[in-house]
Specification:
The protein is built from three helices and six strands, in the order βαβββββαα. With about 150 residues, it is an alpha+beta fold. A six-stranded antiparallel β-barrel has the order 1-2-3-4-5-6. The radius of gyration is 18 Å and the shape is globular.
C-alpha cells in the first residue's frame, strides 16, 4: 500500500526507545517528505524521497503507530494525520509521520492495527515456546525441496 507526500521525521539526540516513551518531549528533525510503502503481509515499511537518484530506505517492519495531535496527546484520526511509528529497525526504530490526507491517515491506521495484532501474536507464540513453524523445520523443508529438484 502506497502513501504519498508523507513527512517523515527522526528523533533528535535520543534513542528510538526513549523517543517512543517520551515523544512529546523530543525534538524531531524532518528527514524528508516522500512516499511510504507498507507491504500488507510482512508490514515492511519503505520510504522513498522524491527524485530518481535517491534510493528507497527500508525502515523495518511496522510494529505499531499511535495517532497524536499538535497538543501532544492521543488524537482521533479525524482530528489529525500525525503518527508516532515504531518499527523493527535497529538504529532508528521510531519515526514521526505526517500524512497529507485524512483518508491516507485512516488507511495507514487500519494497516498499523493489523501490524500490531500480528506482532503481538508473534510475541505470544515466541513466549510460549511453541511456534507454529520453527526455522529449523522450515529450513529442512526447503532443503528437501531443493534436493528433489
Amino acid at each position: 500500500m502506497n502513501f504519498s507526500d508523507v513527512s517523515v521525521s527522526l528523533p533528535a539526540k535520543v534513542r528510538g526507545s526513549e523517543a517512543e516513551e517520551e515523544w512529546q518531549e523530543v525534538d524531531w528533525h524532518v528527514l524528508a517528505s516522500g512516499t511510504v510503502t507498507v507491504d500488507p503481509e510482512s508490514f515492511l515499511l519503505v520510504f522513498k524521497p522524491p527524485g530518481s537518484s535517491v534510493k528507497a530506505k527500508p525502515f523495518g517492519n511496522l510494529i505499531k503507530a499511535s495517532p497524536v495531535n499538535a497538543r501532544g496527546d492521543e488524537a482521533s484520526l479525524d482530528e489529525n494525520r500525525t503518527f508516532i511509528v515504531t518499527t523493527s529497525e535497529f538504529q532508528h526504530g521510531t519515526y514521526r509521520m505526517v500524512f497529507s490526507s485524512s483518508t491516507e491517515a485512516n488507511q495507514f491506521a487500519d494497516l498499523a492495527k493489523k501490524a500490531e495484532a500480528a506482532h503481538e501474536a508473534s510475541q505470544r507464540t515466541k513466549d510460549s515456546g511453541s511456534p507454529a513453524d520453527t526455522s529449523a523445520e522450515s529450513n529442512a523443508r526447503l532443503e528437501s525441496g531443493i534436493r528433489r529438484v
